[in-house]
Every structure is written in structure tokens, then in C-alpha cells.
């Protein structure tokens, strides 16, 4: 009976984010391609990202705090309804302003949804199950998003509204999954021995959460920049829409690999080098996209970029939730970093591509990630010295 209960929670932890990120993967991959059909330039493509994510940012912070007060599902369900309406609007949009408006609404829905859901998983994770349930959650959103993003180009060839219509359907399915999950009895939040040990280790290394969050922020900075700006570069290189969508989807495949690698064992917890590895992968991907022109090499670069994002994301989410206190606030901050990374990446990518060149965003990104590596090492060293001085 106990094992059946745990299995039920893991299935929901996987299925709910798989559907919701499937919605995101379809909409976000198809959106810039539809906008380019309507004559969008690099600046407008960047504006699609940073304006929508600017609206998403306060929603992420408010969602976590609000869900602490009124309940998780009272935030999650309205967010799903908003996502359904936004994707339905994108399916019938015929002008660039319409695309922008409905994408802003969809981004607000996503901002409201994920902090409340992540805290919901914490609420429903029995002793010893938090890491496992977060693993299923991470696998769900990455696999769902990757599969749907890879399919978006083929769907777009059939009808420009088809990816968005299916995205709306996935958000609709999510409502029923969440309602079924909400009937599962809540459990205590006592920390098991493994989580106590990890919490104690990280408490002595307070810089590690900050470092993981830097990589987490930069990962989504690069994802937003590439997702919105690469289609323009690829179009100039005479690639088909289907190929472009597959290459952008490769980033989500990399995310899945990075997250799955982070969840197979605790090899990365309490250590600096995995986070430096993640940041180094982001540097390498930016340099590669700046230099290469082959679809195969672009695909490898985006796979590396996504993997680095996945490792950093896993660390940032786990370290933020492991203490089991203020979960709504912590998940709100976690998702706020996603939104702010998207804002900064969209704005910087649009600005540099419009006024410098279509490859300029990627070398700029590589430089920022290299700076993060240096800052991380300095921060870790300073914190370690301070910790030793107090022993």
C-alpha cells in the first residue's frame, strides 16, 4: 500500500509538468517561426521574449507567496485556465501585436503555475521522497518540453495554429491531473537522514546555492536568447523551419540529459565542480554557435548548452527546497530567476543581433558565462576561508 502511494505521487510528479512544459515547448518553438513569417526582425523577436517575461517575473514571486496563504491548487488551476486561453489566442493570431499579447498572457500563466506546483510537490513528498519526486518532476518537464518542441516544426508545416491548439489541449489535461493529485493526503515534512546530511553540508557552504542560481539564471538567459534569435540566423543560412525547430528542440533534449544526470545519484551535492562544469558548458556552447555554420555542429552546441542548464537547474531547485521551510517563497525565487534570465537573454540577444550582427549574441553570452565561472571560484574560496576561520 505504501509503495502504491509513492508510485502515485511519482506518476503525478512526472505527468503534470510533462503536460505543462509540453504546452510551453510547442508554443515557444513555433512562436518565433510564425513571427518571422509575419516579417519580424531580430528586435521584435527579442521583444517577444523580454516583454512577456517581464510580466512573468512578478507572477512567479506572487505565486509562491500566494500559494502559501490560499493553497496551491487555488493558484495552479487558474494558471492552467489562463494558459488554455492564451494558446487558443496564439492559434488564431494573425498579426505581430496579437502574437505578443497572447504570448504575454501565456507567460503570466507559466509564472503563476510553476512556483505553486513545486511547493505542491514539497507538500506531498513523504520523508525521504523529496529528491525522488523532484527527479520525476524534472524528468517530466524536460521530456515533455523536448518531445513537443521537436514536433513543433512538423506540426507548423500542416497549419500555423496547430502547435498552439495542441498546447491549449495539454494545459486542459493538466487541470484534471492536478485535481486528481490534490485528493492525495498531505504528509509530514520531517527530514530523512540523507537530507539532513546534505543540508548540514550545504549550510557550511552557503555560497553553493548562490553559485547554482547563477548557472540557473545564465542557463535560461542563453535558452531564451537562442530560442528567439537562432531562427533568424538559421533562416539566413537557408535552413528549413523543420530543421530550425529540431535544432532549438535539441536544447531541451540537453536539459533532459543534464537533469537526469543530476538525479541518478547525489554525486553533485555539496560540491563546487559540478556547477563549474555546468557554467563551462554554457561558455563552450556560446563560442561554438558563434563560430560554426553546420546544422550538426549547431545541434551539438545546443545539446551541450541544454545539459549545462539542466545541471545548474537541478542544483538550484534542490538546494532551495531541501530545508522544507518557506517553500512557496523559495520556489517563487527559483522561477523568478527563470523569468529574469529570459528577460535579460531576450533583450540582450535582440539588441546585439539587431545592431551588431546575428552571431553577436552568442559570443556576448560566452563572455558572461566565463565571468560567472570566475565569480563562482572567488565566492567559493572566500566562503571556505570564512568557514574555516569560524571553526
Q: Provide the β-strand percentage band.
A: under 5%
The biggest beta sheet is recorded as: none
> What is the structural class?
mainly alpha
Helical fraction equals over 70%
CATH architecture, by name, is Up-down Bundle
Domains (count): 1
CATH level-3 fold name: Growth Hormone, Chain: A
Please count the helical segments: 13
Tell me the span between the first and last alpha carbons.
Answer: 47 Å
Mean pLDDT value:
88
Annotation, overall tally of beta strands: 0
Order of helices and strands: HHHHHHHHHHHHH
Let me know the CATH homologous superfamily.
Answer: MFS general substrate transporter like domains
What is the chains' assembly state? single chain
- The CATH C-level name is Mainly Alpha
Rg is 20 Å
Spans where pLDDT lies below 50 across 5 or more residues: 188-205
User: In one word, what is the shape?
Assistant: globular
Task: Please tell me about this protein's structure.
With 391 residues, the protein is mainly alpha-helical. The protein has one domain (2-389): Up-down Bundle (Growth Hormone, Chain: A). It has 13 helices and no strands. Helix 1 runs antiparallel to helix 9 and helix 11 packs antiparallel against helix 12. The longest helix has 36 residues, at 2-37.
Amino acid at each position: 500500500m505504501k509503495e502504491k502511494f509513492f508510485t502515485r505521487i511519482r506518476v503525478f510528479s512526472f505527468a503534470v509538468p510533462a503536460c505543462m512544459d509540453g504546452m510551453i515547448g510547442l508554443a515557444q518553438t513555433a512562436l518565433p517561426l510564425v513571427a518571422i513569417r509575419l516579417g519580424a526582425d531580430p528586435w521584435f523577436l527579442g521583444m517577444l521574449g523580454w516583454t512577456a517575461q517581464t510580466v512573468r517575473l512578478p507572477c512567479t514571486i506572487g505565486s509562491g507567496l500566494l500559494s502559501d496563504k490560499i493553497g496551491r491548487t487555488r493558484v495552479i488551476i487558474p494558471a492552467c485556465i489562463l494558459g488554455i486561453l492564451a494558446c487558443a489566442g496564439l492559434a488564431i493570431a494573425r498579426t505581430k501585436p496579437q502574437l505578443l499579447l497572447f504570448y504575454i498572457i501565456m507567460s503570466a500563466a507559466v509564472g503563476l503555475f510553476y512556483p505553486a506546483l513545486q511547493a505542491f510537490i514539497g507538500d506531498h513528498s513523504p520523508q525521504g521522497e523529496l529528491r525522488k519526486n523532484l527527479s520525476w518532476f524534472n524528468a517530466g518537464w524536460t521530456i515533455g518540453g523536448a518531445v513537443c518542441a521537436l514536433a513543433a516544426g512538423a506540426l507548423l508545416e500542416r497549419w500555423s495554429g496547430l502547435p498552439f491548439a495542441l498546447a491549449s489541449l495539454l494545459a486542459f489535461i493538466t487541470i484534471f491531473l492536478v485535481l486528481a493529485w490534490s485528493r492525495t493526503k498531505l504528509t509530514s515534512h520531517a527530514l530523512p537522514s540523507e537530507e539532513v546530511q546534505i543540508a548540514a553540508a550545504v549550510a557550511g557552504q552557503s555560497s553553493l546555492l548562490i553559485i547554482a542560481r547563477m548557472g540557473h539564471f545564465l542557463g535560461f538567459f542563453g535558452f531564451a536568447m537562442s530560442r528567439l534569435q537562432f531562427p533568424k540566423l538559421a533562416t539566413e543560412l537557408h535552413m528549413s523551419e523543420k530543421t530550425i525547430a529540431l535544432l532549438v528542440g535539441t536544447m531541451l533534449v540537453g536539459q533532459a540529459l543534464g537533469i537526469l544526470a543530476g538525479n541518478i545519484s547525489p554525486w553533485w551535492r555539496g560540491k563546487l565542480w559540478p556547477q563549474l562544469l555546468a557554467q563551462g558548458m554554457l561558455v563552450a556552447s556560446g563560442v561554438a554557435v558563434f563560430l560554426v555554420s553546420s546544422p550538426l555542429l549547431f545541434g551539438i552546441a545546443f545539446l551541450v548548452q541544454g545539459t549545462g542548464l539542466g545541471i545548474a537547474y537541478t542544483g538550484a531547485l534542490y538546494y532551495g527546497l531541501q530545508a522544507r521551510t518557506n517553500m512557496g517563497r523559495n520556489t517563487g525565487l527559483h522561477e523568478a530567476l527563470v523569468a529574469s534570465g529570459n528577460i535579460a537573454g531576450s533583450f540582450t540577444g535582440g539588441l546585439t543581433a539587431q545592431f551588431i550582427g546575428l552571431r553577436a549574441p552568442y559570443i556576448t553570452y560566452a563572455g558572461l558565462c566565463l565571468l560567472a565561472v570566475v565569480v563562482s571560484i572567488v565566492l567559493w574560496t572566500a566562503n571556505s576561508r570564512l568557514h574555516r576561520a569560524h571553526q
